[in-house]
Amino acid sequence: MPDLADGETFEMKGSGAKPYQLRNVGGLYSCTCPAWRNQSAAIERRTCKHLRKLRGDAAEEARLGAALPQKPAAAGGEGAGPPVLLAETWDNARDLAGWWMSEKLDGVRAYWDGKQFVSRQGNLYHAPDWFVEGLPGVPLDGELWVARKAFQRTVGIVRRQDKPDTWKEVRFLVFDAPAAGGAFEERVAYLRDGLAGWKAGFAALHPHQLCRGVDHLRDELARVEGLGGEGLMLREPGSRYEAGRSGTLVKVKTFRDDEAVVVGHEPGKGRHAGRLGALAVRLATGKVFSVGTGFTDRERQSPPPVGATITFRYQELSDGGIPRFPSYVGLRTDAAALAPPRG
């Protein structure tokens, strides 16, 4: 059967006028068809009839089997996630002068428990032996990262179980030492000294700088986002490492607004059964995707009609030009609303 090389895209005729695009990014296969996009499974566990037609059922079953998550007992009990620190969102008002500022990495959060990498949900990342060589037998908190705008590729590499050579593209950027104790500055000093002696070839300390105030923060955010970065993280000086969500760690990101035309209604499930689950919408570029969050219960009962123009908020565009984390803002009712694209 034919297959897609890493980074290759293939167009396949579907039921619509425009062909669907099938893509392989670092072993992560995707399709632009609604059946693939609307699945609730993690993106590395999704398939569709178009991928099966191209690659064959056997190849798809083998790929999905290799993507099955494994829960390590060492992470605090079977199926339990590690005790990681989680950030709150900046309220655009809190004074963060004097806090430690770093780039928010668009990678995969990973907790090194002294023996293996574990996700926030307790899934095991099967890193090759040569990748983890030199890492210490103590917990480290960090990010498995390839590059800016490479989130999908990073996921495609680190969630595979066959330990591919593409792990050579990945770096483990460490930003905290949960078990080291002391203030944040002391833990960073511990990491700086430790990484110099551990000789871990694929690990590095994630850099921080002191925030001088809100103007400095906004300038740095603009610089990072201009380079394709995701945003900023700010750590309170003198703070301890604590499991769970804490105000001592704050994330700062810019959300973008755009408009799209409603082309369909997707039924809700669970608590939204019997009302709107998501809007199928189309951008002026012709890209179609779903917006499933940001609605009130009343809006789910009486959603914007097909043909209406909505405003939505999102973080960034995927490699395929699809908004990531879209959230409904409101119905556009003025005369400048988008007209459906021709063709």
Summed up:
The chain is of the alpha+beta class. It contains 8 helices and 21 strands.
Tell me what you see in this structure:
The chain is of the alpha+beta class. It folds into three domains: 9-66, no CATH class; 73-252, DNA ligase/mRNA capping enzyme (D-amino Acid Aminotransferase, Chain A, domain 1, 2-Layer Sandwich); 256-332, Nucleic acid-binding proteins (OB fold (Dihydrolipoamide Acetyltransferase, E2P), Beta Barrel), CATH 2.40.50.140. Helix content is 19%, strand content 30%. It is built from eight helices and 21 strands. The chain has helices at 34-37, 49-55, 57-66, 129-132, 151-158, 184-198, 214-226, 297-301, and strands spanning 9-12, 20-25, 28-31, 85-89, 100-104, 108-112, 117-118, 124-125, 140-145, 171-176, 203-205, 209-210, 231-235, 244-252, 256-267, 276-282, 288-291, 309-314, 316-317, 323-324, 327-332. The strands form five sheets. A six-stranded mixed β-sheet has the order 8-7-6-9-10-11. It has a five-stranded mixed β-sheet with strand order 4-14-13-5-12. It has a five-stranded antiparallel β-sheet with strand order 17-16-15-18-21. A hairpin with a 5-residue loop joins strand 7 and strand 8. Helix 2 (49-55) crosses helix 3 (57-66). The longest helix is centred in the middle third of the chain and has 15 residues, at 184-198. It is globular, with a radius of gyration of 22 Å. The two termini are 33 Å apart. Residues 68-79 and 339-343 have low confidence and may be disordered.
